[in-house]
Amino acid sequence: MGKPTGFLEYERETAKVLPPKVRIANFKEFRTPLNKEKQKLQGARCMACGVPFCQSGMMIGGMASGCPLHNLVPETNDLVYTGNWKQAFLRLSKTHSFPEFTSRVCPALCEAACTCNINGEPVSTKENERAIIETAYENGWVTPQIPEVRTGKSIAVIGSGPSGLAAAQQLNRRGHSVTVFERKDRVGGLLRYGIPNMKLDKAVVDRRIHLMEEEGVKFVTNVNVGKDIKAEELLKQFDRVILACGASNPRDIKVPGRDAKGIYFAVDFLKSTTKALWANDMKLVDGTYISAKGKHVIVIGGGDTGNDCIGTSMRHGAKSVLQVEMMPKAPDTRADNNPWPEWPKVLKTDYGQEEAIAVFGQDPRIYKTTVKEFQKDKNGNVKKAVIVSLEPKKDEKSGRMMMVPIEGSEKVIDAQLVLIAAGFLGSQKYVTDAFKTDLNPRTNVLTKPDEYETSVPGVFTAGDMHRGQSLVVWAIREGREAAKAVDRSLMGYTNL
Predict the structure, then answer these.
(1) What is the DSSP-derived secondary structure letter of residue 190?
(2) What distance in Å separates the CA atoms of residue 169 and residue 165, rounded to the nearest whole number?
(3) What is the secondary structure of 13-51 as a DSSP string?
(4) What's the pLDDT tens digit per position in 188-221?
(5) 446, 279 in Cβ contact below 8 A?
(6) What is the pLDDT of residues 453-490, one digit of tens each?
(7) Are residues 224 and 315 part of one domain?
(8) According to the per-residue pLDDT averaged within each range, which of 44-48, 67-71, 393-397 is highest?
(9) Rounded Cα–Cα distance for residues 79 and 98 (Å)
(10) How far apart are the C-alpha atoms of 254 and 371, rounded to whole Å?
(11) How far apart are the C-alpha atoms of 164 and 483, rounded to whole Å?
């Protein structure tokens, strides 16, 4: 521990953030990291706890507490404080595949579990992590890890999101030959088309993909496994197959008028903007994307994806933005029944919501509300939405609390663009049908607890397709664990 009293001497400090009205002028990342000397002091704030919940990754109350990857947080924080950047990178690399991704998009489970939270603010571990990996890139320490010996074994990874990439990286470095199949035109999955550029610049994704190609991973795009190529063919060509296709079935809403033009799933809206930007030198060209410009926008869903829709709509130049959430507003501080080190169930105002507040003068979120009906104009375009307030009531049969409409609380509001960000339901049926894998009741691919091989011998699964919609950091954890399982099945043991 470099500075035993650091948490008492130094205040938490994070990256400088551009003002909302400035940053919505483009789709660039808008955080300026601290300089090295200031970042070192943030490392000094780590208490090097005897029981570091920050790296535990354990489930408490149905939610993760600490890093699912079990990053050696106190050790890397201390190395940041002492300026041993290369050693910090090597230590972080023991447990992490892609710190450049999580240090931008992770909600920082490590920080939520930091002991400093008991009586102050947590260590800025997420930004320490970003400083480590970006320093490593700047100094040429992140180099292709090409295996000296090939095993002669081959693996097909279906899907190039964070879980598929993590599995591919690990297995290739072990010496197996890995081919990653991606149905879209470019590699990255969720990282590419699900996360807006201002949160994760796609150049950061490409930087890692190029490294993996140099290491020997083969990427095949525009191939939809289960449609363009049969599962049987892959099972003949490869020794093992990993299904890492994500939870890509968006949850829909069933109300009158849902068929109106101008109603889209959030993922389609976000993808259209990303594709348009990268096709036109990071500029939006009218007619090439789903546009919110000059429109009254309604976002249905209160999660990260909903916030990303708000941030993207603000950059389009939306006339207004409303975010509709079914659940009650979260408290500003922890409730008594939500103690540390549990994940804090508190109100979070993210970047998109901050931008809407700055431009429109009010929080875009309304709580305990849902859409009852959409109204169309004469051309079939959505023009208004009927919203209704909700209240909690206990279902007499199940005993569960449910949100039910309050009679007479309906309101009619303008809506020219509606974005459904209500989450995802599970894996794509045509893929699981093609491989004939068993599913659980949530339509995720079924395995034994804490295992990754499916009901079909030689076919494994990882990521959201396995555990359901979750975080990038969990997807990376799943990919690394699936790689261990595959390696063990091929070699009889694993050193991954």
Answers:
(1) I
(2) 6
(3) ---EE--HHHHTTSSS--EEPPPHHHHHHHHHT----SS
(4) 999 999 999 999 999 999 999 999 999 999 999 9
(5) no
(6) 999 999 999 999 999 999 999 999 999 999 999 999 99
(7) no
(8) 67-71
(9) 19
(10) 10
(11) 9
d(CA 257, CA 375): 6
- Select from 123, 103, 126 the least CA-distant residue to 114: 123
- What CATH number is associated with residue 317? 3.50.50.60
Provide the residue type at 31 as one letter. R
Amino acid at 94: K
Specify whether the CB–CB gap between 246 and 271 falls below 8 A: no
What's the pTM value of the predicted model, to 2 decimals? Answer: 0.96
Position 484: which residue type?
K
Give the end of a domain, one of 138, 170, 199: 138
Same domain, 229 and 316: no
* CA dihedral over 274, 276, 277, 279, signed as positive or negative: positive
Q: Measuring CA to CA, which residue among 390, 396, 330, 323 is closest to residue 363?
A: 323
The enclosing H or E element of 297 equals strand 296-300
- CA pair distance 453, 451, nearest whole angstrom: 6
- Dig out the tokens for 447 from the structure: 């395995």
Report pLDDT digits (tens) over 144-177.
Answer: 999 999 999 999 999 999 999 999 999 999 999 9
How many beta carbons lie within 10 A of that of residue 78, not counting itself? 22
On whether both 271 and 415 belong to a single domain, the answer is yes
| Positions of E strands within 221-295 | 240-243, 263-265
Residue 492: partners with Cβ closer than 8 Å, 6 or more residues away: none
Q: Which residue has the tokens 């490294």?
A: 211
- What are the CA-CA distances from residue 324 to residues 269, 386, 389, 419 (Å)? 17, 12, 10, 10
Displacement of CA 476 from its chain's centroid (Å): 10
Contact at 8 Å (CB) between 252 and 422? yes
Q: Give whole-number Cα distances, 113 to 2, 82, 132, 336, in Å.
A: 21, 23, 21, 16
Does residue 113 belong to any structural domain of this protein?
yes
Nearest 5°: phi and psi at 79?
A: -65, -35
Whether residue 74 contacts residue 55, with contact meaning beta carbons closer than 8 Å, is answered with yes
Residue 342 pLDDT: 93
